[in-house]
Design a protein that fits this description.
single chain, alpha+beta, four-stranded antiparallel beta sheet, 3 helices, 4 strands, about 45% helix
Length: about 110
């Protein structure tokens, strides 16, 4: 499929750009390569990353919190991975959930 058409890769690119730009507009720091579909939402604190991921799951969004020893101390994050299976609506709903949880926990 990937070799016969660039449509899926193009969709992942578009969704990644949408997620990263909307998250930045909401006040989140998203690390990593700007074109890469693995989007680390930087929070810094390990306990906060775990709490944030739990609250996202309560909203129906599965994300993973990473902290030491997986990443260096002080660089805890939420890992979001964009795929071609996602829709624009999925991205928008995810950003809305991040924003709501971010406000609740005082990260934005």
């Amino acid at each position: 499929m990937l070799l016969s058409s660039a449509a899926l890769a193009g969709k992942v690119h578009d969704l990644t750009h949408r997620f990263r730009s909307e998250m930045a507009a909401a006040g989140f720091a998203v690390g990593g390569d700007k074109e890469h579909p693995i989007c680390p939402v930087m929070l810094g604190d390990a306990r906060l990353a775990t709490q944030f991921a739990d609250k996202m799951l309560e909203k129906g969004i599965y994300v993973v919190g990473f902290s030491f020893p997986v990443v260096p101390k002080g660089t805890a994050r939420i890992r979001v991975q964009i795929s071609a299976a996602h829709s624009y609506e999925d991205i928008d709903r995810t950003v809305e959930a991040f924003t709501a949880v971010g406000r609740e926990l005082g990260t934005i």
